Amino acid sequence: MIQGFEANCRLQLQTELEQLQHTIIQSLVHGKHAAESELARQLLAKPVSNWPDLLTGNCPWCISSQLERLNAVLAALSQLELNLYGLCSDCECPIERAALLRDPASQRCDSCHNKNHR
Ligand SMILES: [Zn+2]
Predict the structure, then answer these.
(1) Distance 78 CA to ligand 1 centre (A)
(2) pTM for the complete prediction?
């Protein structure tokens, strides 16, 4: 049973996911190369969970930051499904709520995050 806090995070993640899908398709459709609109067509035929596979290696540089974000958002959503949401991917401690409020797709607790950015 998903509690209020997690339900709220899920809502934010789903909204962000929709925006990301929209941004990715728009940048591909308006790309200069025929291959980019072809890629957009392939993406639209697949569920969004398959997008990272389709994009990895094919992704034009202009959407690589969206791809990174897409991966993070999809990972957080699947953790919600598995009841593993909010656990640090390094030390498995619960991630601080403040960090999840800042970014509901956070994958690390503050101390692991700081270790990685030293
Ligand atoms: Zn940690």
Answers:
(1) 19
(2) 0.88
